[in-house]
Write a structure and sequence with these properties.
Helices cover about 35% and strands about 25% of the residues. Bound molecules: flavin-adenine dinucleotide.
Length: about 475
């Protein structure tokens, strides 16, 4: 496997070296969230690339909440040379030892609940405070790459022009060879791209991929200083998944155990796809609303929710699986192309009955998928030696990333149904367990390194035919 990778990279380097003048690919990244910053950091190490990040707001920012990743994403961070930086800010330094993924309990009754699944795996669930997570990328960014207050309003690329021009809302313009759309779930780049492709092809069905779809789920989020909980509260030691009919509550400690992150979900699956009646998807709400939503849940959950004085309320949206991530010299990454309900990491690979522990290579969800997009795209762009080979690299990116990310997107929604006993397997743990197990069809699927090799092989083959 490694010999094949070496051969592909050597071949692509030979092509690069054979060009007479040093080639610089100009990449404009629009959006400085996890996907944009991870891509910028990866590309800033490539001698053939000049990268700029255009962020709409006045600084890079993340919400005050937790984010978790799994061994797969951790591996990518290490491959990008970021292992040590992220190790310092993880809940504890990830060392590959077996840890808890999630401890699953039945909790929607007033008396104490009980465990029905325990997930354990190498690295367990690796947790961060989101602000620290984004900052670790920001710190790895070279100077003079980031530009703030630069909201992309539109872009122009025509078939014959060799460059793309960018028009920003503040009246300024810029040009680039490749536009990376990292502008999140409400991506205006995705909207323009799908609108134009629809006009060009006359296929109006493409327009349905522009707007995100409400999943029928409302989430509430909050952070709790650990000293506000009884020292024996399970959430302090292990990531917990408290499950009930049409609802579940996720909690885990971050910031070296100083804070417990809580996110609760309440779903009405029949309403999936309905328009959500508020334009604003994130609002503040009263604690009373949260408490009423989970009244009569087990005491352990009550203890958590009683400590969230100012919850935020989220209407959880996702995208319909897109048919393409790339058009000409524009590529979409992260939530701009596969925004998903945040259940995958927890659900997709949970199939460990407590009597039958299996250790698995866990997979990421939204942020993890965004990081994987950046890793694969940067690996390909590093090999691009001319504008003519750029579309071949983008095609390889799409061939590798689109099916995988869409698979995770769909699985993520299905996992949410299973946690809330709304899947076809209902509340019967004996059937539900194996059914969740079936969701593991991609457990054995290629590692990120193998995916990288596959992408480079596509590029090598395409260049050979070119
Ligand atoms: C409740 C919840 C919990 C989650 N938990 C997890 C988790 O534990 N693990 C996990 O892996 N994932 C999780 N996710 C998903 C994860 O947060 C997202 O997938 C990830 O943050 C997406 O990053 P992004 O960079 O693609 O988009 P974003 O973070 O949305 O960043 C987009 C950036 O683009 C900028 N922008 C927007 N429009 C423009 C424009 N026109 N021009 C320039 N800039 C623009 C924005 O200001 C922003 O900075 C969760 C999601 C939710 C809702």
């Amino acid at each position: 496997m490694h010999r094949a990778l070496l051969a592909a990279v050597q071949f692509l380097h030979t092509i690069a070296m054979s060009s007479s003048s040093p080639f610089k690919l100009r990449v404009a990244i629009c959006g400085g969230g996890i996907s944009g910053l991870c891509l910028a950091v990866a590309l800033s190490r490539c001698p053939n690339i000049q990268v700029q990040v255009y962020e709409a707001t006045d600084r890079f920012k993340e919400i005050g909440a937790g984010v978790m990743i799994w061994a797969r994403t951790w591996k990518i961070l290490e491959l990008l040379g970021l292992g040590s930086a992220f190790s310092k800010i993880a809940h504890s330094p990830p060392d590959g030892s077996i840890g808890t993924g999630f401890d699953f309990r039945r909790s929607d009754q007033p008396e104490e609940g009980s465990r029905f699944h325990l997930v354990q795996m190498p690295y367990g669930c690796i947790r961060f405070y989101r602000v620290d997570f984004l900052d670790a990328f920001v710190e790895a960014l070279p100077p003079n790459v980031a530009h703030f207050g630069m909201r992309l309003a539109s872009y122009s690329q025509n078939a014959s022009a060799s460059e793309i021009s960018l028009q920003f809302s503040n009246g300024t313009t810029a040009t680039c060879d490749l536009l990376a759309g990292c502008d999140g779930i409400k991506s205006s780049i995705r909207a323009q791209l799908y609108r134009e492709c629809s006009e060009r092809s006359g296929d109006s069905t493409l327009l349905k991929f522009i707007d995100p779809v409400w999943t029928g789920t409302i989430a509430y989020r909050g952070l709790i200083p650990v000293e506000h909980l009884p020292p024996c509260h399970r959430s302090i030691a292990d990531p917990m998944m408290y499950c009930g009919k049409s609802k579940h509550v996720v909690s885990y400690s971050i910031s070296r155990g100083k804070v417990v992150n809580v996110v609760t979900f309440a779903s009405d699956p029949k309403r999936e796809g309905e328009p959500h009646n508020e334009d604003v998807w994130v609002t503040n709400c009263l604690q009373q609303e949260l408490l009423e939503c989970y009244s009569n849940w087990e005491p352990e959950v009550e203890q958590l929710l009683n400590q969230i004085e100012n919850p935020t309320k989220w209407a959880i949206h996702h995208l319909r699986p897109l048919p393409f991530f790339v058009d000409r010299k524009i590529a979409l990454l992260g939530d701009a192309c596969h925004a998903m309900a945040p259940h995958e990491g927890a659900g997709k690979r949970i199939s460990l009955k407590i009597t039958n522990l299996r250790f698995i290579n866990y997979s990421p969800e939204g942020a993890g998928q965004a990081i994987e997009d950046a890793f694969i795209l940067a690996s390909l762009l590093e090999q691009v030696s001319s504008l003519e080979t750029l579309p071949l690299a983008l095609d390889a990116y799409q061939r590798v990333r689109l099916p995988f990310a869409n698979h995770v997107l769909k699985g993520s929604y299905d996992s949410g149904l299973m946690y809330e006993f709304n899947s076809q397997y209902g509340e019967d743990y004996e059937i539900l367990g194996p059914a969740i197990e079936k969701q593991w069809d991609w457990v054995e699927e290629p590692s990120p390194e193998e995916e990288r090799l596959r992408a480079l092989q596509y590029l090598k083959d395409a260049i050979s035919w070119f």
